[in-house]
Amino acid sequence: MTTLAIDIGGTKLAAALIDREMNILDRREMATPASKTQDALQGCLAGLVAPLTTRAQRVAIASTGIIQNGVLSAINPENLGGLAHFPLVEVMARLTALPCIAVNDAQAAAWAEYRSLAAEVSDMVFITVSTGVGGGIVSDGKLLVGTGGLAGHIGHTLADPNGPRCGCGRIGCVEAIASGRGIAAAAKGELAGSDAKTIFARATQGHPQANALKQRSAQTLARLIADIKASTDCQCVVIGGSVGLSEGYIELVSTFLGEEPKTYRTQVLAARHQHNAGLFGAALLAQEAMP
Ligand SMILES: [Zn+2]
């Protein structure tokens, strides 16, 4: 059985053919349409999967946003603006004439990371820190999805009641402070207008404000991890994403976590799958749902 795995993100769309042993047989990528309307996304997805569909037996989608009963809705309108209600599974099943499942991208990535951990791990949490902050929770060997698909959206938990407004509408979410977008938004003076990558590069050179912004992100994440440990009693937290996997970031998070009481500490690991975590996780979930 070959799975056509699709990853729908705020900036790019990826599709891959993945076999039973999780080898990628073919992979394609394109930019997410700028207009972010249902018609534009549907058109791009059709073009992306057309050369791959005939070699697949099922479709597995990982997508940003909330996925409930195969329907996508955007939690943060800045990520996928026009997609208030996009019937993802229905559309892709019609386009490909194949059975189809869909799951939130961070939940999918959490499952891929969980399946690559040692067998004795039954409870873990995945956090991706990139443009936004996403997550997925595995409890007692099961991926938490929730009744409405919201489980694991830990980037929208409270970090600072006096913090900036998040794209989701709440004030002071972890995402509004710790994410690449949050880091860039807080930059002032000569760093104003710089992206997180540039700011982190300046931090490495010893720039005081850049360093403070990086520390603020890492400390916010460490506090989130302590909260997660208190609520899930996980055995480890796996961190991914372009900010999360940047040089020295996990070490910094671990240092801040070390300042919390011992009860709230847990092992912090780097994600293994990086860019393909969503694709692998969706493919694994499809394989388990449709053996
Ligand atoms: Zn939020």
From TrEMBL:
Coiled coil: none
Assigned EC number: 2.7.1.60
Entry keywords, A to Z: ATP-binding, Carbohydrate metabolism, Kinase, Metal-binding, Nucleotide-binding, Transferase, Zinc
GO molecular function: ATP binding; metal ion binding; N-acylmannosamine kinase activity
InterPro entries given in the database record: ATPase_NBD (IPR043129), ROK (IPR000600), ROK_cs (IPR049874)
Pathway: Amino-sugar metabolism; N-acetylneuraminate degradation; D-fructose 6-phosphate from N-acetylneuraminate: step 2/5
Any one of the GO BP annotations: N-acetylneuraminate catabolic process
Subunit structure: Homodimer.
Family that this chain belongs to: Belongs to the ROK (NagC/XylR) family. NanK subfamily.
Protein name: N-acetylmannosamine kinase
Organism: Dryocola boscaweniae
Classification of source organism: Bacteria, Pseudomonadati, Pseudomonadota, Gammaproteobacteria, Enterobacterales
